[in-house]
Amino acid sequence: MSVDLTEIEEAEVDLEEWLVEQAEDGIPEIVLVGLLRDYADDIEQLGYVPRMWGESDR
């Protein structure tokens, strides 16, 4: 499955905006980094992004 470069850029902008919103809401950056690492590890292990995250997925 090929992904359009525009889609990648849009996803990057969306993620950046979400991270900024979280930081502005007082979530410490170290917590955000930890969350991103945990999700990246899960996705790497599964080989895909689950369409629903549940206790059994973690």
TrEMBL record:
Protein name, per record: Uncharacterized protein
Protein's organism: Halorubrum californiense DSM 19288
